[in-house]
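Researcher: We're teaching a course module on how sequence relates to structure. For the next exercise, students receive a sequence and then see the predicted structure as tokens, so they can try to spot secondary structure elements on their own. Here is the exercise chain.
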Amino acid sequence: MTEKQGFGGATKAGESILGPLEKKFVARWVNRVPFWLETHHLTLLTIPWTGLVIASAWQVRESEDIRWFWVVSLAIVLQYLTDLFDGAVGRSRNTGLVKWGFYMDHFLDYVFQCGLIIGYALIAPPQQNLDWWFFGILAITSGYMVNSFLCFAATNEFEIYFFGIGPTEIRIYFLALNGVIILLDPTRAYFVICVPIYTGILAVGLIVLVWKSHTKLWAIDMNDKSKFSDLKK
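Model: And here is the predicted structure for the students to work with:
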């Protein structure tokens, strides 16, 4: 990557289903974010939100009161809002934290992802022996992030949307999942069936995504090779 090309991480390639609505929402409210709340504050707030997820799940485990898991949903909403506005605030105020923001934002997204998986593992009934399945979920979901960053290194285009699904749609899924668990399966009896199925779906999705990325990069290499061969003639 050369300086002339610019830093591809400053923008995201592609768009999610809810992307256009999010852009309108951010444009309307970004200037109403309190002046004392800077872009780096919003980014770093993912740390306490992650702690809130784990602490709430631990309360469920200790007290067997599934209502504590509503706090996990609250943490997801709070993390969504701070993650949604951190970059927009930085751009509107010209803070200049482009590469720091890229690094910390996505590293802390990974931290929050780990916190969520730990949270679900904590509320799973111990007798179901699902620890390895949750470890598999962590490994597979991390694979999606690894794919994004490897493709970014190869193309200087940062894409985090898979099949039209991005972080926002995933958060909505988790909010819906939490509601189902709390209201319909408070004892988590169906974890023993659903967790392995979910792991399998994630694995299939990662295989498809890696195949698409591999064929895209192969085509780029072959195109560059063809251009180089033409220049030598």
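Model: If you want an answer key for the exercise: The chain has a mean pLDDT of 92. The two ends are 27 Å apart (CA to CA).
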